[in-house]
Amino acid sequence: MAQDQTFTVTPWEVKGRVDYRKLAEQFGVKLLTEEDIKKIEKLAGDSHHLLRRGFFYAHRGLETIIERIEKGQRWALYTGRGPSADLHLGHILPWMFTKWLCDRFNVELFFEMTDDEKFLVRDLPLEVANRYAYDNALTLIALGFRPEQLHLIIDTEDIHYLYKIAVKVAKCLTLSTIKHTFGFTDSTNVGAAFFPTLQISVAFLPTELYREEAPVLIPAGIDQDPYFRLARDIADRLGYPKPCTLYCKFVPALTGEEKMSASRPETAIYVNDDDETVRRKIMNAFTGGQPTKELQRKLGGNPDICVVYRYFMAYVPDDNIVKKIYEDCRSGNLICGECKRMLYEHIVRFLHELREKREKARDIIHKYRISSKF
Ligand code: TRP
């Protein structure tokens, strides 16, 4: 758990204004350097905006993966989701980057849907959490993954892939470690205390399935670090390669808080929001603009604190477009209303395409299940 006077970050809660440098320090993860990024770009033969704009910013053991890429050795990607009804744009950001890694490095992604976790730590019936796992998987597939690239694990249905690893993991972790790492207490249910072994197990699964050493690279929100710190601690003892991680910052809430919140609808844009809802949310967003149009023209705005600008950074890959918005905002040429309309158009186009692809994914979801391949 990382706690500070001003912010709290745990796998279940993000509160306050996160100081990302401090958070990396508290978690004990390394900051991504310019050289790291250059190396990835060189090996990928391409650049990704989330990397060059600092969204992915910290890691554990990235050098291991870089070395394996250089030597042409086996590795895999791993990420996941606690399925829920309110999948929003912040959730899919790391998935988009993960898709890029899949394509550029020709590696497979193991994706865990933790319907069990949602049942154990949230107030959600198991059957409902399970249904969301299928629903959320459609959105994941809609990002363009091919069946041979993506292996979908639904915890409650695919447990036999994980259980043998999980019991070994569980034996290495004491109750006291779990309590301290996740902030659990004596009144936490034992399922929640056991659950971390499953999230850790997937990190070791590719080595079992490929029958050769295959460390994973885990692109994830930095709030997931506690799991993988433990995984790295015990990997050696179990004879598995240490998992490596690449962490991203959160997409800020439209209302200006640090993170989009699934429980406060106005803070986030959901995959299923209709156009009018998206329009309203963007129009009400927190900006770096001046109080009046006249002042904006005269003084210019401040994109560095503007949530709308942050969304352009996150969801518009074209540097020229983003740079022009920055400059036009600073100079007072661009007023917030216009800027928001441009963002609205971009987001709505993206969502329409995504939903269309989601519908197409319905008939082929079985091809992505891990059980259809291993
Ligand atoms: N615990 C994650 C969540 O609540 C889901 C998850 C499982 C995950 N495995 C993961 C996230 C690996 C990132 C990487 O969303």
Description:
With 374 residues, the protein is of the alpha/beta class. The protein contains 16 helices and ten strands. The chain is globular, with a radius of gyration of 21 Å. α14 (307-315) crosses α16 (336-361). It has a seven-stranded mixed β-sheet with strand order 4-5-10-9-6-7-8, with helices on both faces. A three-stranded antiparallel β-sheet has the order 1-2-3. It has two domains: 2-254, 3-Layer(aba) Sandwich (Rossmann fold), CATH 3.40.50.620; 265-359, Tyrosyl-Transfer RNA Synthetase (Orthogonal Bundle). The longest helix has 26 residues, at 336-361. α11 links the parallel β9 and β10 (244-248). The structure holds tryptophan.
Give the number of DSSP strands: 10
The total count of helices amounts to: 16
The domain count comes to 2
Label the overall shape: globular
CATH level 1 class label of the largest domain: Alpha Beta
Uncertain runs with pLDDT below 50, 5 residues or more? Answer: none
Largest sheet data: 7 strands, mixed
Any descriptors?
374 residues; Tyrosyl-Transfer RNA Synthetase; 7-stranded mixed β-sheet; alpha/beta
Q: How do the helices and strands line up, and which of them pair or pack?
A:
Blueprint: E1 2-3, E2 7-10, E3 13-16, H1 20-27, E4 30-31, H2 34-44, H3 49-52, E5 56-60, H4 62-71, E6 76-81, H5 89-105, E7 109-113, H6 115-121, H7 126-142, E8 150-154, H8 159-172, H9 175-182, H10 190-210, E9 216-221, H11 225-238, E10 244-248, H12 275-283, H13 293-299, H14 307-315, H15 319-331, H16 336-361
Parallel strand pairs: 6-7, 6-9, 7-8, 9-10
Antiparallel strand pairs: 1-2, 2-3, 4-5, 5-10
The chain binds tryptophan.
Tryptophan binds next to strand 6 and strand 9.
